[in-house]
Amino acid sequence: MRILAIETSCDETAVTLLEAEGNQTSAQFRILGNALLSQIDIHREFGGVYPAVAKREHAKNLVPMLFAALGEAEVLVEEKGTPSSAGALTELLAREPGLSNALIDFLSTYRIPSIDAIAVTHGPGLEPALWVGVNFAKALSLAWNIPLIGVNHMEGHLLSALTSTVEDASQFEISDVALPVLGLLISGGHTELVCMREWLSYELVGQTRDDAVGEAFDKVARMLGLPYPGGPEISKLAEQARARDNTVIPSLPRPMLKDGTCDFSFSGLKTAVLYLVKDRALTDTEKEEIAHAFEDAVSEVLFAKTSKALYETRAKTLVLGGGVSANMHIRRLFTERIALEHPEVSLRIPAARFTTDNAIMIGISGFYRALNKDFLSAEDMKASGNLSLT
Ligand code: KG4
Ligand code: ZN
User: Fold this and answer.
1) Taking the CB of residue 282, how many other CB atoms lie within 10 A of it?
2) Which terminus of the chain has fewer Cβ atoms in its 10 Å neighbourhood, N or C?
């Protein structure tokens, strides 16, 4: 099965053509074409992601990304003609005239490629950004008469973390996954523990009551005068502090550690950092020490709550997913402590390319959804900023 996957939920415009075979017991994947454009350099100037800017950039970049992914997959054959649905496409993309013209141009140049389904992120994320991707997918589905699948971005993070690479980087598989799976999903907008007892069915075990972890990283980074996105910057400083032997680590709270739930809270921790930095000119060493203390506090709380959730759900597999799962310290701490404290649990940490947003993960989720015949009509497909997994 060939799946065209589209991701525009935040600040990455991504398109992938994925070949997938198998079933829920064992599935094999091959990336035929993959294109991704990060808008980070544009958003960095504003210190965060502006939905209207993200939307404008997606509209500008979707056709070039589609061209790049399908070109790499060698499925584009030139054949001039006007798409019969040009009028409907213009109507569907009325709010994006630039995108509409570029797409009609593209469709009038190439023959319909051999694709079985179009999977698109329909939430959660920035709603204006999501809508561009969703309308683009609807337009392609209409022009090519190919079924549509709506993918939950967080499911993409979770399932892509289950992959193992075979042969080269373009091939991977998902097999031998022992259920239940517990997912710790940590990104800029989410911090949640979800349990998958059966494929594609989720139970919420715990979630943040205020800030998401990635958001806390980004806010603390800003307090330390570091650029957006803050996660990788904090991580760099924290690692520098760890490499010294005379580091003084300021004391920071471990919020909600003993409250008896699997929920999180990061806003108190963020405020505690604010008190540390307030009205002071920090030296580079002090910044590194604060980053170190903050990262330690976050990682310990994440691990403690995940450990509790593992006992409660009796999960056999643990996966980390989302942008924050790129964090070296979190990866290290989970690897060491799961081996020590939950040796029966198989820990799956995503490969680096699956930690940041991409369309491969949307294709993976799209494949399992297609096996379930979870297709959506264009009328029923909507972008939903708060779409939930559970
Ligand atoms: O999943 P993602 O790319 O986008 C969302 O769906 O939100 O996650 C982005 C978040 C940002 O808050 C970013 O600061 C954080 O992931 N992040 C990190 C690291 N790399 C990215 N946080 C901590 N350490 C990192 N190495
Ligand atoms: Zn994400």
Assistant:
1) 15
2) C
Which residue lies with its CA nearest to atom 1 of ligand 1?
323
- Asked whether residue 216 falls in the same domain as residue 248, the answer is yes
pLDDT tens-place string over residues 1-53: 999 999 999 999 999 999 999 999 999 999 999 999 999 999 988 888 899 99
Residue 7 Cα to ligand 2 midpoint, Å, equals 10
Rounded CA gap, 288 and 301, in Å?
20
Predicted local confidence at residue 142, as pLDDT: 95
CA 147 / ligand 1 centre spacing (Å): 32
User: For residues 16 and 2, is the Cβ–Cβ distance under 8 A?
Assistant: no
The verdict on residue 326 lying in a domain is: yes
Determine contact, residues 162/200, Cβ cutoff 8 Å.
no
Residues 19 and 113 placed together within one structural domain of the fold: yes
186 and 218 share one domain:
yes
Give domain status of residue 28, yes or no: yes
Is 229's C-beta closer than 6 angstroms to any atom of ligand 1?
yes
Ligand 1 within 6 A of CB of 322:
yes
How far is Cα 327 from Cα 307, in angstroms, rounded to an integer? Answer: 18
Q: How many A from CA of 300 to the centre of ligand 2?
A: 22
Q: Is residue 33 in contact with ligand 1, taking CB distance under 6 Å?
A: no
Is residue 331 located within the same domain as residue 360? no
Q: Would you say the CB of residue 187 lies under 6 angstroms from ligand 1? A: yes
What is the number of structural domains in the chain?
2
The answer to whether residues 27 and 367 touch, using CB atoms and an 8 Å cutoff, is: yes
CATH of the domain at 256: 3.30.420.40
**Enclosing domain of residue 233:** 178-349
Domain identity same for 248 and 264? yes
User: Phi and psi for 261 in degrees, rounded to 5?
Assistant: -115, 175
The pTM of this model reads 0.96
Flag whether 39 is in a domain: yes
- 111 and 250: one domain? no
Residue ranges near ligand 2 (ion) with Cβ within 5 Å: 187, 357
The pair of structure tokens assigned to 48 is: 């965060």
Q: Name the amino acid, one letter, at 8.
A: T
